[in-house]
């Protein structure tokens, strides 16, 4: 069986998909007779699913078209990891929300169900890790919930934290913390033999346990609750693990420390440091007290909770950003008791307009000190513009000790953004060990309204980006930015990775594939079948350098050309001969962007190039066509149009001004800087040629051949100015100058004169025309 949420398509488009962390099975004994084996699964949309492992529920199988699952809790904040479970004290599930708290959910056999019963007093930044629990079996009081705390995407100022597993009055109690530098994204601590291990983004692994090898024995200090504006003073005591001299201590607001240094300690001697906590705002505060010594530095964590009677909200406001009309976006806000005694909710005012609160706390709900309730709010605009229409409202929650107002805002857009990545493959080719090569790709918004980058997953390891694309980056319509990636191999083996980017354009994540120390020509040759299976047959040359940093290799049956921008493509036969004669990749055609391919009519063959094409048939041979002339030919229907196949390369006109290709139609496309590219063929082309082509009185064509309004004739206008008009009864004749002007004034061919039956001629007396 399988399970997929009933709204999986939308979740995937919004990069809010299920399974950002794997499912977790509850231990045997936690099921019921109806559901003996249970799973817990979480996703980026913040819903927590309780599933029957033997009947997962499929997709949309409930009677109302919803999810046929055992239970759903939330939505809370999105989860970019997996849940943790503690089997003692009746059973608890733990999840870390994205920019939300560590949350404890109590298991109940009634249902069965999961109920949120407690959270941490502060929020965990994006890239924080998943919880893991250590204990002595299910013995009550023996467990700790370990989790890596990160401040945000960079992983800076990370901590390893341990919490008591059972919340007290709705709050999870911090038992231990230690600074670890820069956290790895979504890291999970490892535990074994009474020790906890954490890896960091800068390539270190820290082990925590007893005994310690730190120069000072420390432990974190928690000031507890302190009223906003007040000061709590304390003394932190550390013990020297060796003879040393303390040369300084430092911390940052809202904490302070003072110590006259230097202080010399012998092994085992203690040092008392006066510290203080002065919160300026309510909420949890964390800091680091760092000791500098002549034997190295060490640090301990400081924690405190600023309190203030009433209610608070995290975040303080909700900004939905730009949302397209007809789409919906949901965010959550935590309403917290910021005081020191329980508060009772006395009133709730929901947001209005395009905003809606899907689950409001009921009047009479009691929120314990430090605890919170989550209110999901959705934004579904119904009308907007390409530039956006701002909308706002507010959520108001009142208690017996105060109230909190949460402003909500959004911008309604009627257009649509579109994320485009170019190229979608970066090939670094061969880079020696110890050297680096940097390439870039373009992140563009090809839509009509601003695009917001919702997720950007940069590679790590041998592929890396110093300046990573920021989540939340807004790209205006028609604008773009460049993202660089550096490849620094540590060995000569092939390497591959991906840079994954998601925008708010309703599409799934898009990927740029990164390849290094690969041989794209050999890889492509093998894809085509290699020496025994490919029409290229055996190689007749080694790889060699080509224009602009590209590569090429020749084979018995053709050549493969490669560049970082175009990838590898094969060119063969007469097309290859023509391509090489024109200068290959160094010519105005650039590199091939297709292999040789058959034309739709089954007659010809072609390759497209960066700036043109070469077309071949048995009757016409292979000829290059590019630029505006190629565009005009394409607009007329390519080889299936009236012009047929090219019979010349693009060639300069005798007057040195224009360019042209002749075609098998017969026909031609002529171009000049002042007239652009236009097609001319048949009897009209024959008459123009007889009058001297572009050097004659008519000049260059300024239109393609067009039908006359009466549906009888055909014509081209020229830069002379002049025209050639044709009809079945009159043939093709040129008319220009003052005679053309008078004919036009009389109504062209629809006037009393009809179609011209001669070219402009001289009168017998040699005076007139």
Automatic annotation (TrEMBL):
Main location: other
Limits of the HYDIN/VesB/CFA65-like Ig-like domain: 220-297, 417-516
Region of interest (Disordered), ranges: 1-30
Keyword Cytoplasm: yes
Cellular location(s): Cell projection, Cilium; Cytoplasm
Keywords, in A-Z order: Cell projection, Cilium, Cytoplasm
Claim: Lipid metabolism is one of the keywords in the record: no
Biological processes, Gene Ontology terms: carbohydrate metabolic process
GO CC terms: cytoplasm
Protein name (database record): Choice-of-anchor D domain-containing protein
UniProt source species: Amycolatopsis rhizosphaerae
